[in-house]
Amino acid sequence: MMKRRNLTKIGAGIGALAIATTLASCAGGDDENEAADDCVIEDSSASGAIDSADTVAAPAAYTSKTTSTKQVPAAEGDGETITLGFIPSWTDGRSTAYLLEDQLERLGFTVEMEELTEAGPLYAGLADGSIDIYPSAWSEKTHADYMDEFGDGLDDLGSYYDNALLTITVPSYVNVDSMAELKDKASCFDGKIVGIEPGAGLTAATQDSMIPTYGLEDDYELLTSSTAGMVTELDAAIEAGEPVVVTLWRPFWPYGTYDLKDLEDPEGAMGEPEALHFLAREGFSDDYPEAAELIGGIQLDDNSYGSLEDTVVNQYEEGDEPAAIDEWIEANPDAFDTLITE
What we know:
The structure is a single chain. The protein is of the alpha+beta class and 342 residues long. The chain folds into 2 domains: 14-22 and 38-57 and 164-262, D-Maltodextrin-Binding Protein, domain 2, CATH 3.40.190.100; 64-163 and 275-331, D-Maltodextrin-Binding Protein, domain 2 (3-Layer(aba) Sandwich), CATH 3.40.190. The chain has helices spanning 13-25, 30-35, 91-106, 119-128, 144-150, 201-213, 227-240, 254-257, 284-287, 289-296, 302-315, 321-331; strands spanning 64-67, 81-86, 110-115, 133-137, 155-171, 192-194, 221-223, 246-250, 260-262, 274-280. Strands 4, 5, 8, 9 and 10 form a 5-stranded antiparallel β-sheet that branches. A 3-stranded mixed β-sheet has the order 1-3-2. A two-stranded parallel ribbon has the order 6-7.
């Protein structure tokens, strides 16, 4: 087991290179440099990262499956397999997936972890029964289109966090406070908003709601690649003390690593806060009532969720998530009513 503080746990890959190339191609001359004088708050210093800036290459698009070999006493599960589907770069789902893996194993289940790169296949997998649980579904608003297509009959096992929010965000040193100011500040950002995966609900909210609401269609382009690519661009801009505007969401670990500022949204274009749900295939609760009861009892506040994600994503190497969960449970034995600690 290796433990460390890792700045960007999942690195950039090809998508980030594409974003960097696009941004670099927009670099201007003296006129742009003069315009940039109004882009950064005077006498402010770049909000650097807490620790190391090491990154690792992000995987190409893939679907992979791993089966835990952790040995625990058999209980309700008696070795039956439950498949958890999640997107590793969306660290809310990654963190809760490994929490569920730990807890379900303690009930005697074998847990299969299926990693995907887009939300659509996750919902499709729930609908066809190939995936048992999506452990962090933004099913109320952000993924409403997927719910319209795939949601009939799915088991909602409950919400674990009730204040998730889509955001448009800048480093704190950037001289912009509201989405309403972006139109007049396009030159500060070379007319680019750095986004995440094309199929993400956050991407749709930004492209279809925020940009037209604030009249940015002719002034900005939304760059999409991956969450890892977005984080890498954010990190690079902060290291250089340069303006950057990105699509983000709460809860997400960069808020604990960088000094960031969510832009005010006076028109409500990015939507209201929503809850994050454990969503299961049809019939899961009937098949595994004890597992459903355990999962339904998971309720995390800002502090407990923040420490969970930080421990899994930043404190431990990829592949050491079970050890991260062990540490988190030891430090938070009363995190929720149904937590199994032994």
